[in-house]
Amino acid sequence: MPGAGRRRALNERPLFFDLTPEDLTQRMLTWGEPAYRGRQLWRGVYRQLAETPELITNLPHNLQRRFSEAFSFYSMEVKKTVRSADNNTQKVVLGLTDSHSIESVFMRYERRRTACISTQVGCALGCVFCATGRMGLVRDLTAGEIVEQVMYFTRRLAQDGERLTNIVIMGMGEPFLNYQATMQAIDTLNDPDGFNFGARRFTISTIGITPKIECFTQERRQINLAVSLHAATNELRQQMLPINRRYPLESLIPACRNYVEQTGRRITFEWALIRQVNDGLDQAEALVNLIQGLNCHVNLIPLNPTDGYPGEATSQQQVDNFYHYLNTRKIQCTIRVRRGININAGCGQLATE
Ligand code: SAH
Ligand code: SF4
Q1: How does residue 344 score in pLDDT terms, banded at 50, 70 and 90?
Q2: Is the CB of 347 under 6 A from ligand 1?
Q3: Annotation says 162 is catalytic
Q4: Is 63 in the same domain as 106?
Q5: Residue 242 belongs to a domain
Q6: Does any ligand 2 atom lie closer than 6 A to the CB of residue 127?
Q7: Which atom number of ligand 2 is nearest to the Cα of residue 131?
Q8: Taking Cα atoms as reference points, which of 81, 84, 57, 56 lies closest to residue 71?
Q9: In sequence order, what DSSP letters do the residues of 126-186 get, joined into one string?
Q10: Distance CA 29, CA 32 (A)
C-alpha cells in the first residue's frame, strides 16, 4: 500500500494500531518472550486505554521500554477542533505523518455517542454533491489510522467517564475501495480480548461497489450495512454518482437482495434529498418498485450544502411528501436530522486541503 510505505519512510517504527494480535504473537516469538506479553500490551492499549507501554503496569520495565522503542503509539496530531453551538457535534482535523489530513466527527444524540470515521484521504468517486469527492483520492488510510480515530474519541470521552456507543464508517472516502484495511480495523476494534466493540454497533456505508458487497455478504459479519442509493433510475443515478455506470442498479440491487437473504439482516438505503433533482414522487415510485419486498430501511437526509455544487436541500414540505409516499407503501423510513452543517461536519461536507 503506498500510504503505509510513505508513512514508514517518515516514521520508522510501525504504528501499533496497524498490528494484528498475530503480528504481536509473532513478534514475541522473535524476541523470545512468552506470547502473553503481547496480549498484555494489546489489552493495556485497547482495554485500559493506556497511551504508552510505560502506563501498563503489569509489564516489566524492560519490556515497556522495548515496546516503546519498537512501535509508535500515535500517528495523528489534532490540528483543529470545531464544535457546533450546542457542542453536540464536534469535528476534528487530524494531521497524518505524511502531512495530509483527514476529518472525523463525534456526535452526541440522546444516549448515543457516535464516532464518524474516515477510511481514505479524499475519494476517487466524484459524486457531484460531495466535498470529499471533489478532492479526488489522495491515498488510502492504513488499518491503524482508521483505528486511531476511534481511540482518539474514546480516550477523550473516557476523561468524562463516557464511552462511544456507535461507530459509523461514513467519513471521508469509500470504505469498500479500501476494503482490507477497513475490515482489519473493524476486527481490531471488535476483538473481545481487546477493545471489544460490538459488531452490531458498527455501520459501514458504501456507494455501492457491487463485488465488495458480495465479499462482505460472504463474510457474514454482524455489522450494519448502508448503501448510498440517492436515485432509483440509472439515468438519474449516473448523473449524480459516476460509479453507477460501472455498477448500475441491475447489478447493485441484486447484490443488496442477496445480502439480505444470505445474512437475514436488514439493509439501509441512504437518500440525500435534493430539490427538484431526486425529490419527486416519480423517483419515490421508482424506489418503491426497486426495493419491493426487500427487508430495508430508507434514510432520507436533506442535502447538506457544499461548495461547487449548486443543488439545494428539498423543502420541508416536499421531504414530508416523499416520506409519506414511501410510508403509505410500507417502506420503513426516517427523516434524518441534519447535524453539524454549520461547522461543515455533515454528510458529504468533509474535505481537507
Ligand atoms: N463513500 C461512502 C461513505 C462516505 S459518504 C458513501 O458514499 O456511502 C457518507 C454519506 O453521505 C453517503 O450516504 C453519501 O452519499 C452522503 N453524502 C455525500 N454528500 C452529501 C451531501 N452533500 N449531503 C448529504 N449527504 C451526502
Ligand atoms: Fe466518495 Fe461517498 Fe463522497 Fe461519493 S459520497 S464521493 S463515494 S465519499
Answers
A1: confident
A2: yes
A3: no
A4: no
A5: yes
A6: yes
A7: 3
A8: 56
A9: --TT-HHHHH-EEEEPPHHHHHHHHHHHHHHHHTTT----EEEE-SSS-GGGSHHHHHHHH
A10: 5
> Which of 123, 246, 303 to mutate for ligand 2's pocket (most ligand atoms within 8 Å of CB)?
123
Same domain assignment for residues 46 and 89: no
Find out whether the beta carbon of 130 lies less than 6 Å from any atom of ligand 2. Answer: yes
Task: Please name the helix (run of DSSP H) or strand (run of DSSP E) that holds residue 318, with its range, or none.
Answer: helix 316-328
- Pair 112, 255 in one domain: yes
Mark whether 347 is an active-site residue.
yes
SS3 50: coil
pLDDT digits (tens, 9 = 90+) for 98-148: 999 999 999 999 999 999 999 999 999 999 999 999 999 999 999 999 999
What residues have CB less than 8 Å from 131, skipping those under 6 apart? 306, 307, 308, 344, 348, 349, 350, 351
- Model pTM? 0.95
Q: Is 270 in the pocket of ligand 2 (CB under 6 A)?
A: no
Which is the closest atom of ligand 1 to the Cα of 227? 8
State whether the beta carbon of 102 lies less than 6 angstroms from ligand 2: no
d(CA 304, CA 349): 7
Q: Which domain holds residue 256?
A: 83-343
